[in-house]
Amino acid sequence: MFGKVVNAARRRVSFNSRKKEKGKGIQSTDGVLEVNSFDDKLSNKSKTRSGDAPTIPVFHRRGFSLPSDAFYFDQRPVCIIPPKGVSSELIRGLQSGHRSEQRHAIRLLRDTQVDVKMAFVEAGGVPALMEHLKVTRPLKEMLQCLVAFLHTGEATVHDLFMEHGIVSVVARQLTMGTRSCRKWAARALPYLVVGSPEAQEEVLQAGGVEALAAMLHSAKEKRREAAAAALAALAKDNPAVQRQVASQGRLADLSAMLPKGRVATRCMVAATLANVTATDAAFQALVAEYGGEHLLRALKEEDEALRGEALRALACITAVPEGQKIILEKNGVPDLVELVQLGQTEREGWVLEAILNLTSKEDPTPDAVREDLIKRLLKVLLVGTASCREKSLRVLAQLSQLKSSGEWRIGEGQLIPVLVSLLVRSSGPIQEGAACVLANISDVCENRRKIFEAGAIKPLVSILGCTNKSARRWAGYTLSKLAGAEDVVLAILHEGAVDSLVRVLSEGGTDDERWAIDTLSTIAEAPYLWVRGLICSTGSIEVLLNFVASGSTEMQLASLRCLANMVDGHWESQQMVLGIGVNPLIRLLLNGDPALQRATIHVLARLSHLEACKCDVSVEWQSIRTLGRLLQADELIVREDAATVLADLATIRGPAMIMQSCNILVLLIEMLQCPGQEAIRQAARAIGNLARQSPQVKSQVGADTEALSCLADALDGSDFSTRAQAAHALASVMIKEPAFQCRVAQLGVVRPLVDMLHVPNTACNSQAARALANLVEEHHTNQVAVSMGGAMEQLLHLLADSSMEVKRNAAHAVANLTHHSTANQLAVVRGLGVPSLVGLLNGDDHEARSHAVRTFANLASSTEGEVVESRRAAIMPLISIISSSDDKSREQAARALANLACSEAEQELIARVHGIPPLVRLVQAGTHVAQEQAARALANLSCKDANLPAIIRHDGIPALVSLLRSTNGACRKQAAGALANLACNNAENCTAMVVAGGVPDLVGLLSSESEACREQAVRAVGNLACTRDNQQALVTGGAAGKLIELLNCRDERESCKQRAVRALANLAADNEANQLIIVREGAVPALLQMLSKGECTFQKETKRALMLLACGTDMKMHSSVEDVQSARAEVVASVLGVRLGSDTGAFAKMHFMAEAGDNEGVPRQLLCPITHELMVDPVVAEDGHTYERSAIVEWFRNRNSSPMTNEQLSTTRVVPNVLLHAIISDFNESKRQQNRM
Question: Is the pLDDT of residue 435 over 60?
Answer without folding.
Answer: yes
